[in-house]
Design goal:
Pfam families: EamA. It comes from Lysinibacillus composti. It contains 13 helices and no strands. It has about 290 residues and is mainly alpha-helical. The protein has one domain. Helix 1 runs parallel beside helix 12 and helix 4 packs antiparallel against helix 12. The model has no long low-confidence stretch (mean pLDDT about 85).
């Protein structure tokens, strides 16, 4: 049991490191490819890869009940989160979005309780709520007293992704971690083909190499490999417990935004990020 927990936490950490580059990569790619290509086109690229894997491995089809769960996963990780975060990154700095994404463990734990039958402790909930309030105050402060459209998009994305995380973590125990995200990609892709096709233009061929690297990172790592590690971690260590690793994401995203985007980080951002992460340390016992 302890061995599974350690392996689960390690896989979860690998997944979070992969995800922490998602917003910086999105911010780099969007100006050259647009929101539709970055938000949905990444899934089309990932679908080509997983389809080849399915053919080589001769993977069997999921059953009807599993397909229903996979549709929930696809709603969040394939459609909702990529599209909404792409929209948000058109107007928000990555460091801003990073703090708000610290709400993900709260959303994940809530849906883990509803969908996975887990029961996080009262201490966990109190600490998570304090962290959530800190994030909302921060977002409102930067928005001069009100949430911006990008903030609202991120908050909706967090709720949808929290549900998908919980559903995918539960389903990984019977279907396998890489199979969950792979099937979700395959299920969602047909709905994206037309809008992605209409958004293609010859001007995209002129995009710089860093934009292409960012797009393929989003497709291969953010959309597929990161979820293989993440869902595998949650299936081994528990959805709510491994989900708390997401509180490291603000620090990683902030660091990557400085390294790759040259963003300036204020002391307020650092202090509030520390408060949020302290909340998870306090509430980690379940």
């Amino acid at each position: 049991m302890e061995s599974n927990l350690k392996r689960g936490m390690l896989l979860g950490l690998i997944g979070i490191i992969c995800f922490s580059l998602t917003l910086p990569a999105t911010s780099i790619a969007v100006p050259y490819f647009g929101a539709t290509i970055v938000g949905l086109g990444r899934t089309v690229i990932a679908a080509i890869i997983v389809s080849i894997i399915f053919i080589v491995k001769k993977e069997s089809l999921p059953n009807k009940r599993q397909i229903k769960s996979l549709c929930i996963v696809a709603l969040g990780v394939v459609l909702g989160f990529p599209l909404l975060t792409t929209f948000a990154m058109e107007s928000l700095p990555v460091s801003h979005g990073a703090i708000e994404l610290a709400l993900l463990p709260l959303a994940t734990a809530g849906f883990a309780m509803i969908r996975g039958g887990e029961r996080p402790s009262k201490r966990y909930w109190i600490a998570s709520i304090i962290g959530a309030i800190t994030v909302l105050v921060y977002a409102a402060f930067l928005g001069l007293g009100q949430l911006q459209k990008g903030d609202i998009a991120l908050l909706i994305a967090i709720l949808i992704l929290g549900l998908s995380y919980a559903e995918g973590g539960k389903l990984s125990k019977e279907l396998g971690s890489w199979q969950v995200i792979a099937w979700a990609i395959v299920i969602g892709t047909p709905f994206f083909m037309i809008p992605v096709g209409l958004s293609l233009s010859a001007d995209m061929l002129q995009a710089p190499i860093e934009a292409w690297i960012s797009l393929f990172y989003l497709a291969v790592v953010s959309q597929f490999l990161g979820y293989v590690a993440w869902y595998g971690g949650m299936s081994l260590g528990g959805i709510a417990r491994v989900g708390q690793i997401q509180y490291l994401q603000p620090f990683l995203m902030i660091g990557f935004s400085v390294i790759f985007l040259g963003e300036t980080i204020t002391w307020l951002t650092i202090v509030l990020a520390i408060i949020v992460v302290i909340c998870v340390i306090i509430g980690k016992g379940q």
